[in-house]
Amino acid sequence: MDYLRTINRTQLKQMMDEQQDFVLIDILPDEYYEEVHLPGAINACVYDVDFVAQVEGFVPDKGKFIVVYCNGATSKAPDTALQKLSLAGYTGLHFYKGGTMDWRRAGNPVEGTGLDKVFATRVEDKVYTIDNAQSVVEWIGRNLTGSHYGTINILSGSIPVKRGMPISASFTLDVDSIANHDLQDPALNNLLVAHLKSDDFFDVKKFPTASFEATSFKPRDGAKPGAPNFQVTGRLTMKGVTHEITFPAVITLRDDGVIVAEAHFDFDRTQWNINYGSGKLFEKLGRHLVYDIITLQMKLVAA
Length: 303
Prior knowledge:
Layout: E1 6-7, H1 9-17, E2 23-26, H2 30-35, E3 42-43, H3 51-58, E4 66-69, H4 77-87, E5 93-96, H5 99-105, H6 118-122, E6 127-129, E7 136-143, E8 146-162, E9 165-166, E10 169-180, H7 186-197, E11 209-219, E12 230-238, E13 241-253, E14 259-268, E15 293-302
Parallel strand pairs: 1-5, 2-3, 2-4, 4-5
Antiparallel strand pairs: 6-8, 7-8, 7-15, 8-9, 8-10, 10-11, 11-12, 12-13, 13-14, 14-15
């Protein structure tokens, strides 16, 4: 083989398919290696103080063709590994820059115990910014005679990702943008929207925005494609009141590197002082009864 400091996915795949004589080393900590790694790779964590000794135990021949890789293309870990191994006398060192994310984006096979966690193995570590033009929050409210539904616009938000996992998320809602989509009569539609904006419900003059801040993302083991793969916990603030809520969510990565998060859940509006027509707070409401439970369905698109 010719000496190559870097190799690409196609070259590495060909080497595997032809069963060429080389050693592939995943240099991430063992918990990440055990979750997912390239076929046939061994593990020696570059962050361990005995990293070189681990490699020497696996590969005593210092002229051996070696390929090191980690999760993605931006980490400095492979540079550190190559430097340490070069100083230890290894001469056949090579670097697969794309790493696990590049390998999986091409649909190549992997090994490990966490193969159902597709999101974590493909997503790039950075702060993803929510696209408010593509993101939306839909609401459903119900009463004795039926239901109403509509939307609320998202003003801004972000989803920081570290080590392939979302570590938090936050977004702000423009409550003054609340709209109804089921009433076709303009007069009735305007009447309902004004009612929702009034102090009977969201009191947008005092509280024009609401916000959500996620504090925990717990992967759901065994989640199938299309089913919720995370349990999200966070703080929802409306009308100056904050309460913690927990709900399931589907968080995926599109082929273009964009995160799409979708969730729907119910909450009791009276916990946020949205009390109009509540049967547990008022008596003899008759046709003015409004159910306490509101349903939200969210779609967040972030890049």
